[in-house]
Every structure is written in structure tokens, then in C-alpha cells.
Specification:
By secondary structure, this protein is of the alpha+beta class. The chain is built from 15 helices and eight strands. This is Lipoprotein.
Length: about 500
């Protein structure tokens, strides 16, 4: 037995002696090349044998130093490979550190195969994180750069398959996406809704195709395929929501349109110059237009019953009846005058009639809340310079409600407001009629009557526009405010 050990020791010594003799016969550049060849073959200890026998100290230190770097590289790679695959930033940092350490070697020394083998799962984990976060461009970019480094050590075939499926999905989505964009650009409501419905149907087809691919590939819930399918499902749901919101907004617009119709203005040159017949015809046309709008509501509700329910129909019908009742009040005033010359003379003595003749918070400007609420305006316009001009209108303010009436003119002429007919100014002084304007609350050219309901017991208002030094042309409006004082503070 002892003889056997002696023989083995002798052979080892002989081999070492032969190896040493071989190295001693090689020049430094041959030793460098031999070590490089051994390194690139993955035999790092053999490389050490070559480089440790280099004679030139600086050259020897250089190449032996790469073996120490290899030890440091292995630690960096081990640290990267040990990272959890659940968060992208640490993975990217570990990857970058390992790649930087690998690139510190000279170009003739290949990156060790074991380094690439260990880093491949890290690279795939980064790509997976980016795919799951729907960072498609970032995933593609990292796949390219990591493939350049790892070569055949990494297989991105599954990821490329997913990316191809995503590209296909996005191409399929373009069709319904374009349909939604086109629907938004349509003016006619029916065309708009038709576009939305077509897009919803197409999104459903894309969603079904995605579900088939997800099932066939057995992709988990958090995969990019599942996320893409969820995104298409959300698009379909969002498109339906947008379509229904469009329908609801159109439905709500009927109330605004009916209110606008009640407050519509005649041609500018007609304001203040309408005969009794003109006023009657104008009111009759307003009534017909409101009836027509209400008929549109009924037809709309029949076509889109999911959007307009019975309560909304009732609301619109109530608004219509209330406005028509107020038109009837104005019409009755005119018809009395047509039948009775004395009444006609009294109406004529009031001055010019604003349009619309009746205003109040029953027909508010849409959107405003609380003290910012105000009625749609009654308009007046004219041209007079050297003498006052007189106007009148009707106002409805519920008993006990503290609304304010405000006359606003586009120039600085003074305004006085009265509760009764001034006979175009003739009876202001003789009857000692009280000017109801609260001048302490005047703002600019707006002349307020505070708590107008309590002061205008006749349901009518009569106002005087004073003299001016300009060209005499003027225009303005009368508006009922929920609270002019609070609004102007």
C-alpha cells in the first residue's frame, strides 16, 4: 500500500515537473495566450498556471489580477441571482452591476459561461416585470440589450410569443378605437350612438379572441395577455359608459332647450317694437316650439328607454306645463288688450315690453347653484339720447322668497324701477312713485331691487332709462337673482 502512494506521489511530482518545464520554455506572450485560451474554455485554474509563470512582473500582475476580478464578478453575479423576482428596480440594479463587472475584462477574455447562465433568469425576471406592468417598449429594449450580452444563454421565445399576441391585440383594437373616435366626431346623435354600439361589438370580438389565446396558452391572471384582455374589457365598458352618458346629457339637454325656448328673443329690431299681434304670434310660436321639444322627448324615451325613465319624462312634462301656463298668462294679457281698447291703451302707456315678457327663477340659467342662481334674462335695446325711455315686464317671485331683480345697462345712464305703471314717466312725480332701486348695492351699471317679490306686488316692473351724453344707443337685460347681494360680495 505504501508503495502505491509512493508511486502516485512520484507521478504527480513528475507531471508537475513536466508542466513547470513546459512553462519555463514558453515566452511571456505564449503564456498570456495559453491562459486566455484556457480561460475561454472555462478552465480558470489552467489559466492561472499559465499566467503565474509570466516573467515580466507588470504583465504577470495584470493577468493574475483578472483572476481576482473573476472572484469579485462571481460574488456580484451570485448577489444578482439571489434577488427576489418580484420587483424590477433591484433586479435591474443587480443586472447592471453584473454586466458592468463583466465588461471590465479585456475583449479577448470571454464572459464566463456560468456568469451568463446565472444572469439569464435575472434578465427574464426583468422582462416579466416590465411585461406585467404593460411596459412593452421597455421590455423589448431590455430583451435586445440582454440578448446581445447573454447570447444563446437566454431564451426569449415565450416572451416573443406574448409580444406577438399583444401586437395582434393592439392591431385588432385599432378598429374599435377608430370607431369610438369617429363616433365622438359625429354631430347627429343617432350616428354617434350607432358608432358607439359598433365599437362595443368590435371590442367584444377582440375580447373573445384574447380569452381564447389566454386559455390556449394557459397564461395566469397577472400575465400581460390577461392584462391586455382586461384593458380591452375596460375599453368596452368605458365606451358603453360614454355612450350612455352622451344619451343622458342629450336627455337632460331637453330641459335646457325648453327653458331656452321660453326665453328666446325675437329679431333684435323687433325688441321694443312689437305690436299686440306680433307679441301674440311670437308667444304662440314659442308654445308650439315647446310642444315640439316635448314630443322629441317622448320619441327619444321610446327609442332609448334605458336612459330616459318615467321620472324624467314626468319632470319634462311638468316643466312644459309650468312654462305653458306662464305663456298663457302673457297671452291672456295681450288678448284682453286686443278686445278692450282701454286695456290696450293702458298697456301702450307702460312703454316698451322686454322680451320675454315674464322672467323668474322658474326658468333659471342652467348650472348655477345657491346664491349664484339667476333667471334667464329679459332683453331690451333701443336708441334715445335727450329724453328718458320707458320699459316694462312681468316678474314671478314666490311669496316670502328673497329674490332680487336687477336691471343692467351697457352704458352709464341712470335707471329707476317702479312697482306700477308710470304712464311712460308722466305719473312719477304726480303720484310720487317710489324708485325701488337700492343704490347702496349698485354694482357698475347694474341697478338692483332687493327683495323684489315683496316690493313688486303687481307682478310687473316698470323702469326708466335716463338721459345719456353718448350716441344714445343702448341694450341691457333684466334678471332675477337668487341673491344679488351675496353674489356680488
Amino acid at each position: 500500500m505504501k508503495l502505491k502512494f509512493v508511486i502516485l506521489a512520484f507521478l504527480a511530482l513528475a507531471l508537475a515537473s513536466c508542466e513547470s518545464m513546459k512553462f519555463s520554455m514558453m515566452k511571456d506572450d505564449e503564456l498570456v495566450a495559453g491562459g486566455v485560451k484556457a480561460w475561454n474554455a472555462g478552465n480558470f485554474e489552467a489559466a492561472r498556471g499559465f499566467w503565474s509563470n509570466i516573467q515580466a512582473p507588470n504583465v504577470k500582475n495584470q493577468w493574475m489580477g483578472y483572476l481576482d476580478q473573476k472572484v469579485a464578478l462571481d460574488k456580484t453575479v451570485d448577489a444578482a441571482a439571489a434577488l427576489p423576482v418580484t420587483a424590477e428596480p433591484p433586479l435591474v440594479a443587480g443586472w447592471n452591476n453584473a454586466v458592468k463587472a463583466s465588461n471590465d475584462f479585456p475583449p479577448e477574455l470571454k464572459v464566463p459561461a456560468d456568469v451568463k447562465t446565472q444572469l439569464a433568469p435575472v434578465a427574464k425576471a426583468v422582462v416579466r416585470q416590465r411585461l406585467n406592468a404593460n411596459k412593452i417598449a421597455g421590455a423589448r429594449e431590455f430583451m435586445k440589450s440582454s440578448s446581445d450580452f447573454l447570447g444563446d444563454a437566454v431564451d426569449y421565445a415565450p416572451e416573443n410569443k406574448e409580444l406577438a399576441a399583444i401586437a395582434d391585440f393592439r392591431a385588432r383594437e385599432k378598429g374599435p378605437d377608430d370607431l369610438v373616435a369617429a363616433a365622438r366626431g359625429k354631430d347627429a346623435l343617432d350616428d354617434k350612438i350607432e358608432g358607439y354600439e359598433a365599437a362595443i361589438a368590435e371590442y367584444g370580438k377582440v375580447e373573445a379572441a384574447m380569452a381564447d389565446i389566454q386559455k390556449a396558452g394557459n397564461y395566469p391572471a397577472g400575465s400581460i395577455i390577461a392584462l391586455a384582455s382586461d384593458r380591452t374589457r375596460r375599453k368596452r365598458a368605458d365606451t358603453r359608459t360614454e355612450m350612455e352618458r352622451t344619451l343622458r346629457n342629450h336627455a337632460y339637454s331637453f330641459k335646457d332647450r325648453i327653458g331656452e325656448e321660453f326665453a328666446r328673443q325675437p329679431d333684435p329690431e323687433k325688441v321694443g317694437n312689437m305690436t299686440l299681434d306680433d307679441m301674440l304670434a311670437f308667444n304662440q310660436q314659442t308654445k308650439a316650439n315647446i310642444d315640439s321639444l316635448q314630443a322629441e322627448v317622448v320619441a327619444f324615451a321610446a327609442k332609448y328607454p334605458r336612459v330616459i325613465d318615467k321620472d324624467m319624462l314626468k319632470d319634462v312634462e311638468t316643466q312644459k306645463q309650468e312654462l305653458l301656463a306662464r305663456i298663457a298668462v302673457v297671452t291672456a294679457e295681450i288678448e284682453k288688450a286686443k278686445k278692450d281698447a282701454a286695456i290696450a291703451a293702458e298697456i301702450a302707456s307702460r312703454g316698451k315690453a322686454v322680451q320675454p315678457m315674464l322672467i323668474g327663477m322658474f326658468n333659471p340659467v342652467p348650472g348655477a347653484k345657491g346664491p349664484d342662481q339667476k333667471s334667464r334674462p329679459a332683453k331690451f335695446r333701443g336708441a334715445i339720447k335727450n329724453s328718458p325711455d320707458y320699459w316694462w315686464g312681468m316678474v314671478e317671485i314666490a311669496k316670502g322668497v328673497l329674490n332680487d331683480l336687477v336691471i343692467t345697462v351697457d352704458d352709464s345712464r341712470p335707471v329707476r324701477v317702479f312697482n306700477e305703471n308710470t304712464k311712460s314717466g308722466k305719473e312719477i312725480d304726480s303720484k310720487k312713485l317710489k324708485d325701488l332701486v337700492n343704490r347702496q348695492y349698485k354694482v357698475g351699471n347694474s341697478w338692483p331691487v332687493i327683495n323684489a317679490g315683496a316690493q313688486m306686488t303687481s307682478g310687473k316692473y316698470f323702469f326708466e332709462l335716463g338721459k345719456t351724453n353718448d350716441d344714445g344707443k343702448y341694450s341691457g337685460d333684466a334678471v332675477v337673482y337668487s341673491s344679488f347681494v351675496v353674489r356680488m360680495r
